[in-house]
């Protein structure tokens, strides 16, 4: 069957999941991390080459400081806990976004996990952190200006975005019933199939992930042709 080489996920709905249970928002994020672990394993088992997870957007800085702190705390714990499994499963961690703006201890943890898994040849787990599609495009433009290149082609441009060297996502999944892109992979999503579901991220299980893929497999892709 046609398994997408690159699947990207906008993991949304953690806050609403918690509110429905009268729990603090962070409990929703904590439960969401469990689904992250599950979906990584499932994608890896299916032979997906790249799994991109939208974890923190450039707009998410607008949230209360306590929530932001909580999210980065969960990220640190996650990386520390999973590194052995990543090694064992030959999984390579990559990060897209402006990581330099994250708290120093978080940057350290990320860099260490990226370094430890750098030689792995299996699935690429690509985490979008302080990521914005517009930020990525502007950043690429500035890098290109720095090189002095005058005639920019699409093929040139692609080399300066965060996902340089990676295929574009064939499938983008968004949970929680929102039907928007929220500044995610603006360049790369030109021809992605978009799959949305009302399921909140903390409820999004392996079975739901497989459903999204089988839905994708039914789509007719024309790429502008007939
Ligand atoms: C997604 O869940 C996680 C992040 C954006 C970090 P939300 O926190 O956006 O959950 P809702 O949308 O408020 O339910
Ligand atoms: C998108 O979710 C960002 C991530 C999942 C990290 P948001 O909850 O931030 O998006 P909006 O605010 O509903 O557009
Ligand atoms: Mg949200």
What does this structure look like?
- By secondary structure, the chain is an alpha/beta fold.
- The protein has one domain (6-218): 3-Layer(aba) Sandwich (Undecaprenyl pyrophosphate synthetase).
- Helix content is 44%, strand content 15%.
- It has helices at 14-20, 25-46, 65-88, 104-117, 133-147, 154-157, 206-218, and strands spanning 6-10, 50-57, 92-96, 124-131, 171-174, 193-196.
- It has a six-stranded parallel beta sheet, sandwiched between helices.
- β3 (92-96), α4 and β4 form a beta-alpha-beta unit.
- α1 packs across α2 (25-46), α2 (25-46) packs parallel to α3 (65-88) and α3 runs parallel beside α4.
- One 3-methylbut-3-enyl trihydrogen diphosphate (IPE) binds next to α1.
In short:
The chain is α/β, with parallel strands linked by helices and 226 residues long. Helices cover 44% and strands 15% of the residues. β3 (92-96), α4 and β4 (124-131) form a beta-alpha-beta unit.
């Amino acid at each position: 069957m046609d398994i997408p080489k690159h699947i990207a996920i906008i993991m949304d709905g953690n806050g609403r999941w918690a509110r429905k249970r009268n729990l603090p928002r962070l409990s929703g994020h904590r439960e969401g991390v469990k689904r992250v672990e599950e979906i990584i394993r499932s994608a890896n088992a299916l032979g997906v080459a790249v799994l991109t997870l939208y974890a923190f957007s450039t707009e998410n800085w607008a949230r209360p400081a306590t929530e932001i702190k909580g999210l980065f705390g969960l990220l640190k714990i996650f990386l520390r806990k999973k590194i052995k499994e990543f090694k064992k499963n030959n999984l390579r961690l990559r990060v897209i976004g402006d990581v330099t703006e994250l708290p120093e201890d978080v940057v350290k943890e990320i860099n260490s996990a990226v370094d430890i898994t750098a030689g792995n040849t299996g699935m690429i787990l690509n985490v979008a952190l302080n990521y914005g599609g517009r930020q990525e495009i502007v950043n690429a433009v500035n890098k290109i200006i720095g090189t002095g290149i005058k005639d920019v082609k699409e093929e040139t441009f692609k080399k300066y975005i965060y996902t340089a060297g990676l295929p574009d996502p064939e499938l983008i999944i968004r949970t929680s019933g929102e039907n928007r892109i929220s500044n995610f992979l603006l360049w790369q999503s030109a021809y992605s199939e978009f799959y949305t579901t009302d399921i909140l991220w903390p409820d999004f299980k392996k079975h739901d992930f497989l459903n999204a893929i089988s839905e994708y497999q039914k789509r007719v892709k024309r790429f502008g042709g007939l």
